[in-house]
Amino acid sequence: LEQYPHINKGLAGIVAFSTTKSFIDGQTGDLIYAGYHIDTLAENATFEEVCFLLWNDRLPNQEELDELHNKLRSERQLPEPVIEYIKNTRKDAEPMAVLRTAVSMLADFQDDSNDTNHAIAVTAQIPTIIAAFDRVRNGKEVVSPLDEGSTAFNFLYMLNGEKPGQAAEKTMNLCLVLHAEHGMNASTFTCRTICATESDMFSAVTGAIGALKGPLHGGANTAVMNMLLNLKEQGENADPVKFTKEKLNKKEKMMGFGHRVYKTFDPRAVHLRKMSKELSEETGHEYLYEWSEAMVKTMKEEKNIDPNVDFFSASVYYSIGIQPDLYTCIFTMSRISGWTAHFFEQKANNRLIRPRALYVGEKNLDWVPVEDR
Ligand code: SDX
Hints:
single chain; mainly alpha; 2 domains; three-stranded antiparallel beta sheet; globular; binds s-citryldethia Coenzyme A; tricarboxylic acid cycle
């Protein structure tokens, strides 16, 4: 393997694809989805417009947007066996594990092999799965989706059993816009790797959910909230600066900080930080925002490391009453748009993904019969 002398651990810095889906400038902290800056999208876009943008590399006109809304609405209901699975699985199962299994099951209920239809079906049904499991595990009736409203609106409706107000819908929509797409992150890479074997979209998305679940990736938002709740348990002695320094001294990771690409403030975190401030004040959770800011300052001073998308999203979701172990599921609800967009892109110009590993083991061992080992 002399031709591969250098190992890029974690594939750092390797460019393996070209894409029209997103651009990240890790030095300036800029993020663009298919031509549109994240700040522009955060201010103007609905999640459905972002889905269309990522799938088609352009914004929809009104007619196209209406059509997409209608298709999503008509696909939100889950097949009965998937609802049965959600009702019968363990109530204390990890929500991301339940979501992964349920999404995998959806493959069995598709009437065709059309990728566009599959993308719409899985985008429409992920929120229904998440809400249904949360209700079941809390001993509540499953709420069927409505034939009206946006993805954000319906998710909150199915989760809480009542229609959300405009402010809540807007918050959820913005979270979905901010998490939709992010280049060759681990879950999208997984999705493309599965797609590249000419497997199907449900397999690719199921694999991507498995990758997103881990705390070094999407699982970090739940881990951030657990960190903040650990601090809260210390009551009057809670000191976010001391907490951060102690963690660093123990060589532990501060969840929600650091990024392979960003060497500055994650531009999505700018929006989430603002939301976190507003919502924590509105809901009487000021301390969460204050602690978060103290952690940001300490991490900057101690390690020159900034927060990523998962840091402030935790206090945002907490303030709007969502259980911490659902946060990564909400990330999934959004990132499905990026995954499916990359699936289309990979399929349109496919090549099997198959890197090499440098063998560092023995080569000339003699066989020893089992009784002599
Ligand atoms: C997401 O890729 C994407 O785009 C992902 C994402 C998306 O939208 O898809 O942006 C979403 O996954 C965000 C990241 C969520 N994960 C976390 O918040 C977990 C905590 N962060 C890290 O463990 C870490 O920063 C990673 C996993 C995000 C990045 O890992 P890298 O690029 O492999 O960097 P590293 O672990 O090698 O760290 C480099 C240095 C080390 O110090 P030295 O050994 O060089 O002295 O930075 C330190 C690390 O110890 N460091 C941290 C730290 N993150 C990096 N130290 C303390 N706390 C941290 N969070």
